[in-house]
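Annotators were shown the component list below and the corresponding predicted structure, then asked to write short factual statements about the assembly.
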Amino acid sequence: MRKVYLDNASTTPLLPEVREAMMPYLGDVFGNPSSLHDWGDGAREAVETARAQVAGLIGAKPEEIIFTGSGTEANNLAVKGLALAQTAKGKHVVVSAIEHFSVLHSARTLEKWGFEISEVAVDKHGLVDPEEVRRILRKDTALVSIMQANGEVGTIEPIAEIARITGEREIPFHSDAIAAAGTIPSDVGELGVDALSLAGNQFYGPKGVGALWVRKGLRLMPILDGGIQEGGRRAGTENVAAIAGLGKAAALAKSDAVKRVNQLTPLRDRLLKELPAKIERVVVTGHPQNRLPGHASFRVEFIEGEAMLMLLNSQGIAVSSGSACTSRALKASHVLIAMGISHELAQGSILFTLGIDNTAQDIDYVLETMPPIVDRLRQMSPLYSKFTKASKGGK
Amino acid sequence: MPVYNEKVMDHFMNPRNVGEIADADGVGEVGNPVCGDMMTFYIKVKDDRLEDVKFKTFGCGAAIAVSSMVSEMAKGKTLEEAKKITPRAVADQLEGLPKQKFHCSNLGAQALNKAINNYQSQKKTGGKKK
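Structure shown to annotators:
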């Protein structure tokens, strides 16, 4: 059976070159970067090389990069660490309604600690309106955190425009670029942000490693207490192999950026165009144009995402869904709900996230496999039979 | 798909008794507004026994497997026997459901019960059918 992996938003595979770059630090070069002997030197060099590579990807200075144990940790450190360091300014924090849980739940924790949180609404495409951010800002706003792109619906946010507004008021602006960095340009100078998170397993690097960039001079409260690793901003012995892998993945993402976008965009566009054309009542979710290059997300009416996912898996195709049934909490995706999609329609959420291993033949296979699966589930669906009866009756 | 056991997967991949009965003697529809599952059961009754049971389900793999299993368990049973089918019994016949799915997707027995009640109340009031 053909195997087609279209769940790169969950994690990308590890590139062989990245694995190679990691191997020495899983072998002979096992030292602790904090150690003062030769063993430590080898490990420290790896971490510093990776720091320069990650900085290079986002146009930052190496000393501004803080390595973390995941993207989630980078977001926690950014939201909690920046807000806690700005309390002289105030205790008001602004986030968008479609942030990842690592930002939203960090904001919720801040609320318990006496901060006030405002959520910026999004439109039906999942776009934040910068003017809406302007209206929400207050004198005591200590931090704004809005993602560069949403991993569930692919929408790319107008970060540079929002940054102009926060910049005028000198309010620190963090952007979760975990779904974006390494896929689309995330140059911190062009974006105009003050802090930015990224994660290795979103651009062919290893899992269990992330990075937070914080503009020099901006204060940050550490959230882990311990040693003085990462300039005292993130305690804990560095995961040297993973950091080396992240660095290599960042270097490759930078050198191959144009090639990757040019490969993924036409494949994505075929899915966006042809799936709704082939199957009735299939609607693209997220922004029609302004979206991540490998990201095609839909809602399929009358059926549920987990059932689709399982049948696609039985045909060798890996996808995700934001339906309530696929979430462990059995809650519909907060992203789709924030975009004004009803709970019932959100049940039909399905997303195909492409990666650099995908080919035109993979897309052909999806386009040929998907319609009979949808049809099969619809034949079982009471909602679909109501729909067909109503449309027959109407004619 | 290690979330579901083989039995559940079998009933999901090859559901039994999917469909509608045009001249059903009873129809029962239940929906769970929290997670959005919806099931409709159709029954055909002869001599106080479930001669035929069919269903349509909107929901996840577990919801479809549960519906299929309920239809299989109910077919041929007397109405009183069929009314005693519990969500626990359905889950047991399926050799277990993931914990979080037990309450949400396990609505099949309830839908069947509703269909039987629908039939019995029509009979009592000498309803439209029969």
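Statements collected:
1. Chain B touches chain A at residues 1, 12-13, 15, 18, 20, 29, 33-40, 56-64, 100-101, 104-105 (CB under 8 Å).
2. The longest strand of chain B covers residues 49-58.
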